[in-house]
Design a protein that fits this description.
Blueprint: E1 12-17, E2 22-27, H1 36-43, E3 52-56, H2 62-70, E4 75-80, H3 83-94, H4 99-102, E5 105-109, H5 116-121, E6 129-134, H6 149-155, H7 161-172, E7 173-183, H8 188-195, E8 199-208, E9 215-224, E10 231-232, E11 236-237, H9 248-254
Parallel strand pairs: 3-4, 3-6, 4-5, 6-7, 8-10, 8-11
Antiparallel strand pairs: 1-2, 7-9, 8-9
Helix pairs in contact: 1-2, 7-8
Length: about 260
């Protein structure tokens, strides 16, 4: 792309999101590439002023940059443990096309499962964020393993994933701060268990490709320290017809024209 400061290699692509509001440098033919999951996740962040948002397991930075592009004062911290994927995020922030938002986005190479002093030293500072978003690795032992090591690292569960990641979210959020995540529906029980006494006011939205089909994702938000009961929200249906076009409300979420706010 013309005007880009980053040097783009053959194994990379530069892709537009939010209809050109920002761009991502991403791996080509390997690794995890940003798509609808990240855009839906980003749409769950709301707030006014210079709110602080942490994107855990940020990859190339798609969800975090989508937040910064839509909320013009938000300050976003990207946390990614893979040096390879962090390198894509670094190139993403160096693109001239992202100059409008890059100054409000910081990148940290950090393992989000760190604890205590090590977690704080890595930039995951206790009680410092208003909103935490996460699109955790979602495969388990029953899923077919991918031969791509970069994609396998992004998609494979290691240890008690939701417990580890949600524990970190609970530590770094301010009191009454919001956690948002996207996952597969079969993870609902693990997510509720991991939220435990850390979070309440859970809101869960099943995401369906089309009406009448089973949900393939679940959107979850929760509030640190809340004791409110769980709410199951109306389904979000991606396609209004049998075609591939997104429903109007989903297209707005995907392109940063609307937020998916809590009830």
């Amino acid at each position: 792309m013309s005007g880009a400061v980053a040097i783009i290699e053959e194994h990379e692509t530069v892709d537009a999101f939010h209809r050109g509001a920002f761009y991502l440098v991403q791996p080509k033919g390997r690794g995890h590439r940003t798509g609808m999951d990240a855009m839906l996740l980003a749409s769950m962040v709301t707030g006014n002023g210079a709110i602080r948002v942490a994107d855990l397991g940020a990859g190339a930075g798609g969800a975090g940059l989508a937040v910064a592009a839509r909320l013009h004062e938000a300050r976003v911290s990207l946390f990614e443990r893979s040096p390879d994927m962090a390198g894509f995020a670094r190139k993403t922030l160096a693109l001239a096309e992202n100059a409008r938002i890059a100054g409000r986005v910081a990148l940290f190479e950090a393992d989000v499962t760190l604890r205590g002093a090590a977690r704080n030293a890595a930039g995951l500072v206790d009680d410092s964020f208003d909103h935490v978003i996460m699109n955790p690795p979602f495969n388990d032992a029953l899923d077919r393993a991918t031969p791509d090591p970069l994609k396998r690292d992004a998609h494979a569960i290691a240890g008690d994933l939701f417990e580890d990641w949600i524990r970190t979210a609970g530590a770094i959020l301010k009191p009454s701060g919001t956690l948002s995540l996207i996952a597969r529906p079969h993870s609902i029980a693990d997510i509720i268990a991991a939220c435990g006494k850390r979070f309440g006011g859970l809101e869960m939205t099943p995401v369906h490709a089309r009406a009448g089909e089973n949900a393939f994702r679940i959107l979850v938000s929760a509030v640190k320290g809340s004791r409110a009961r769980l709410q199951l929200r109306s389904p979000l249906v991606m396609h209004a017809t049998s075609g591939h076009a997104f429903a109007a409300d989903v297209d707005d979420l995907n392109n940063g024209r609307a937020a998916y706010s809590r009830m």
